[in-house]
Structure formats: C-alpha cells, structure tokens
Design brief:
The protein is an alpha/beta fold. It has five helices and five strands; from the N terminus they run H-E-E-H-H-E-H-E-E-H. 42% of the residues lie in helices and 18% in strands.
Length: 159
C-alpha cells in the first residue's frame, strides 16, 4: 500500500468516525454514556446507533448492537459481509459477538477501552474466531476526541 493510499484510508476513517461522534453526542444529550456507531457500505451509512442502555432500560442497547440491527434490514439479507462498523469506543465482549454473528467485514474504532474492550485491550475476540472469518481491525482513529467526550461525560457526572 502506497503512502498516498494510507493517507486516503486514514482520511476516510476519520470522516466516518466523525459521523459516529455525532451519534455519541446524541447519547450524551440523553444522559447516556457517549458512544456512537455507524455501519458503512459502498460509502453510504446504512445503520446508526448510540448507547441507549438507560433510556431503553436494556443492558444490550449498546451503540454497536443498535447500529448492526439498523443496518441488517438494509439490503437483501442481514449479513454485513461487505460493511464496516465505525465506533467511537473499542467494542466489548457482547458487541464482538454481534459483530461476528453479523459477519461485519471490518471494525474501525476510536478510543481503546482498557477496562472492557475486547478487540485489543482485554482480549482479541475478533482474531481466530470460531467462524473463521477475517475481520480487519483499525484502532485509534481520532482517539483523542473519542476519549475526550467520554472523559468529559464522566467528569460532569462526578461534579
């Protein structure tokens, strides 16, 4: 991959993480932990989600799960083999399971989650998975901005 291709891919990832950040802000506005996710296929957003655990009173209402659910109805079938998940925070164990089951092709995340992230931080659940599918993973895109919205949220809760 040439340097120009790498720069282009990075710029594309930053653009879509910016869209996921819009979802994270929606979550923050509702008093939810500010995590946002989108699903992109053929340069179009086909699914969106933000944390709604508190408002839906549902521990599974993570941004990734809601975005996958939204995207799975878009197209001929529920499989997302040709789609990319962009999420502002490294996915947890539950969300990794949903990513695998939905057959998502690639995952791009912003901030690492040292406490519960299951992609690179506490485990590597997308590597060597039982479905034998390779999932491309890119982490750290706009990590500072993605981490700041979380830090600001929790700081305001403590104040």
């Amino acid at each position: 991959m040439s340097e120009e291709d790498i720069f282009s891919a990075f710029a594309t990832h930053e653009r879509w993480i910016g869209e996921a950040m819009k979802e994270a802000r929606l979550a923050a506005d509702k008093g939810e932990v500010p995590v946002g996710a989108i699903i992109v296929r053929d340069a179009q957003v086909i699914g969106r989600g933000h944390n709604q655990v508190e408002s839906l009173r549902d521990p599974t209402a993570h941004a990734e799960i809601l975005a996958i659910g939204s995207a799975s109805g878009h197209g001929e079938n529920w499989r997302l083999e040709d789609a990319t998940l962009y999420v502002t925070l490294e996915p947890c164990t539950m969300c990794c399971g949903a990513i695998l089951l939905a057959r998502v092709r690639s995952v791009v995340f912003g901030a690492a989650d040292q406490r519960a992230g299951a992609v690179v931080s506490t485990g590597r659940l997308l590597d060597g998975n039982p479905y034998r599918q390779h999932i491309e993973v890119v982490g750290g895109i706009s990590a500072g901005d993605c981490g700041a919205i979380l830090s600001d949220f929790f700081q305001s809760r403590r104040d």
